[in-house]
Amino acid sequence: MTIPEIKRLLDKYKRNEISDEEYLQLMQEVADDAHTSAIKADIMETLYGKVPDMGLEGDEAAAMLSDIFQTGAADARRLRVARRRRLVYSSLAAAVIGGMIVTGVYVSQSGKKAAPVLAVHAKALLPGSDKAMLTLADGTVIPLDSANNGALAKQGNTQIMNRNGALSYNSGGQSSEVMYNTVATPHGGQYQLTLADGSRVWLNAASSIRFPTAFTGRGREVEITGEAYFEVAQQADMPFRVKVHNVEVNVLGTSFNIMAYQDEQFIKTTLVDGAVQLKHGDNASVLKPGLQASLSAKDDHFKIGQADMEETLAWKEGKFRFRNTNIRTIMRQLSRWYDIEVSYEGDMSDIDLTGVISRREEAGKLLKALEATQRVQFAVNGNNVTVKPWEQQ
User: Fold this and answer.
1) 136, 142 in Cβ contact below 8 A?
2) Does domain 129-312 have CATH number 3.30.70.20?
3) Whole-angstrom distance, CA of residue 3 vs CA of residue 20
4) Between the CA of residue 251 and those of 194, 203, 222, 287, 289, what are the distances in Å?
5) 120 pLDDT tier (thresholds 50, 70, 90)
6) Where in the chain is CATH 2.60.120.1440?
């Protein structure tokens, strides 16, 4: 497709006259790697009136533009185009500058003057990092971060090593004493660890895992709170068991995610590969890859359905990904990662947003991107964030 043809589609998009087929064609074109950075800059200028200044030059700018278009095109293909309504262009430009393209939540201003965005104080709300606290069997507490490298301690015959934000337990043989350690991440922290059997664990923010420093007997058992992703080493003669609240997950060797925060309505177990058995009281269910089991406090059985893998595992990949997600759910994720306190004013029940952004961004950029949907607005005072529905004059 030529540049004039692309511009013709952009003009139709601005006038809200573009068809579903033309819209998908347009999104595919702007994501095409064959286009040069100059052409993409021309498209940006057509869309927004100017090329957003991101402080980048040359190849770095071209890469950024490419990433923006690829993100928008990928999300566009996944959404039902029939739900689209016209997006105000100044708002979309602000979302791009903020580092996030929010799709699926479109608004029409109908000539109304938008209310000013609530004031956001200048203090940066920095993203989380690799940090945690290790509690040894004798109660000794050792702070963990990516700078604290080398040998940390010895538990029985097991040497504890820390390297580049990842903890590992290297067993030197069977120990007569079973010793338990705990790794806990704070709000604004995450960490990785390798257990003595070679199983790998990723801990999300505000989470913990309690585990033996060496596995003995006929089974391997750990306990978690919050959210964790497991890659379990296969040992057919020693089944692996994860306990979380009143749920047990039994596996031989597999990869799965468990989300069990106290402030969430459901405990969710998502299977990536292998097979797991879930137990809750007298109820037991077996998951197959690609499925997710949910259990609420009022349920006596698991509800099993197809999992949204990208959304579920986004945290492990260093992203936030929302798909028609209510703003309260979004803010719970942000509060854990940015260590912020969130309050609400007004009805949030119908504010559902879709988008993706890096967890390495400052919270301010993400909040501005969410505000660009003109569905919500924020007031920030220190680490306190107040959320309100978007107000129009």
Assistant:
1) yes
2) no
3) 20
4) 17, 19, 12, 10, 13
5) very low
6) 129-312
